[in-house]
Amino acid sequence: MYNALNNRIRNLLLQYDYSKSTDPLQPLASHITLLLTRNTPKTSDICLTAASESWNLHKFILSARSPYIQKKLAAAPGTTLCKLASSIPPEAFQIALRYLYLGDVASDLGQSNKSFVSEEEVLKSIHKVSKQLEIESLWEGILAGGDRRIARQRHQDEVTRGRDQVEAWYRANMLKHRIDVDSTKAEDVKWTRDNGIFADVLLRADEEEEWEELKDGQESPTTRNTSGPLNGIPIGPAASRSPSSTRKARKSVLFPAHRAMLLRSEYFQTMFASSFQEAQLGEYLNIITVDCTPPVLEIVLDFLYTEQANIPLPLALDTLFAADMLFIEKLKTKAAVVISTIGNGTTNLSDRTHNEATDEVEVEPINVYDVIRAAWDLKVQRLEEFSARYIAYRLEDYIDEEEFEELIKESAGRIEKRQETDSIELLDEYVPWPSPPLFNLLIRIQYPLLPL
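The structure assignment produced for this chain is given below.
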């Protein structure tokens, strides 16, 4: 706009209402809107029909966005077909459904050359539908649709409101009904498809093994949520388990989930579109094991359902590997940012030096060796630079460690087709030269190519 050739071009840009601002919730909103027309893999669990039109929809989205539908489905969760009133034109239902799925309202109100109703009739019907479904903000958005800037702002506000509604539903239903069970009994858990939270898959994450010395005759803790009904869902009977004298019973956590939202991960998208067993629909929900701990899997689900993820620093590295495994690039970036920005803001970064007051060595919040190797394995440039800078600022603390020496060798070995002028990648840009301790280290490991 500032470089417009003349006033006419500048005014055209102003009239077009061009904006460079980005909506952080746009990926989530786009995915949910796309579910309206996405046919493969099949994820819908209810069909709405009106006249000659039909829509394959998702109960959990309708329940999260419409209080009226939420009450109806709570009374009859097994409903798979619903016929809408024939007195209301399909165009009005199409507008309402697109609104529920976080889409913007079309300026033509969904009318085409094949429409048999006037715009006025569609408007009246939208008013009725918005009141019946208890989504009055739809009608308010229709009334304010004349101004493009106001309409765009209202749509962004509605996307934010929709995300909050989905998040509230997700936490009140899915996380509330997670199942903690002994790993030996996890495969015995049975959920029917007509469950009250409309889940169509169970994700399993196993806790890390823990060891302890049990007293003679002591039995391991009993399993929670392994018998009896859960939200109207039958659970397999609890099986007896012999006590162990040294190892604690390993626990697993099962998270009910919806394939429609898991499709945001390319890993699950490929799985559900294939002929694998996980893609088949049976009487009971398939249990899919994810190679991560339960807290990390919960972070992944938080991101897939809400576009937000609160990643604690101790779990950031595990989250990074899980996001890479599931091909969730944005979550992978978030985890890398958490690691690479420690020491900024309110987080104080220890430097492995002795505290002058207590003469105690501070504990590092991360293991930089693990971080840099993860950066190499996953090709995360941000973490490579962070790790090299982290070590460079604390070189005297690391210089005498054997693991640091091994890291230097690994870094040197990463260069393929080495030339005589090549330096060591880890030390090339961040370590101040000359550094006598580092020089001595390189001489000690007898590395012939020194970056002098």
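Interim note for the steering committee: Residues 180-211+227-238+247-300 form one domain. The radius of gyration is 28 Å.
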